[in-house]
Amino acid sequence: MHVVLGAGPLGRAVIKELQLREEPFQVVNLSGRQPGSGDISVVRADLMDPDQAKTAITGASVVYQCTQPPYHQWEGRFERLQENIIGAAMASGAKLVAAENVYMYGDVDDEMNEGLPYAARTKKGRIRAQLAERLLELHHRGKLQAVIGRGSDFFGPGVMESSAGERMFQPLITGKAVSVIGDPAQKHTFTFIEDFGKALVTLGQTEETYGEAWHVPNAEAVSVTEFVG
């Protein structure tokens, strides 16, 4: 059975892909509420509690880590959350598919690829680097089967908080000017949320991908001006 941790936009994209593939799954979230419509099995659990994490993941074959603390709580909480999930996956014998962004690379002037060093200077970037290094270390030590899928700024159904989410598209549909962060002429990669979900499920079902970090497929980089145009 597949277990999806989190029911935000990315978790829902993974759910959709599992449904398309007719794979058995359940969702774990803090509220216990069902995401969207349809008959979806939901387990209520606080993954910050290691015992609840183990109970929620018991019986899983593949776990999709699509949850995270609020941005302002990453420091001090994200590592503990991840360790609880890792411990639960190890106890269950489940494979772990971790969704990540690209913060760990820091500022990159050229094309991003999986071979880039982790050169982040920000707190969030360093946290991301530590989490990734920990997962891959455990995999290579034979303690855990883990694979990482990385995407850029999300856009697509249900995406609200991303820089390419509500604050970009809400003004567009109401005919107002769009406020963007940074240089609107600079090329940027945007990740369609459903492509991210599909990529994570593909990674989870492909044995040869484990032990590595992979960038999910994206369209060609464009400027923000081109993206909204």
TrEMBL record:
Coiled coil: none annotated. It comes from the Bacteria. InterPro entries: Epimerase_deHydtase, NAD(P)-bd_dom_sf. Residues 4-207 form the NAD-dependent epimerase/dehydratase domain. SUPFAM superfamilies: NAD(P)-binding Rossmann-fold domains (SSF51735). This is NAD-dependent epimerase/dehydratase domain-containing protein.
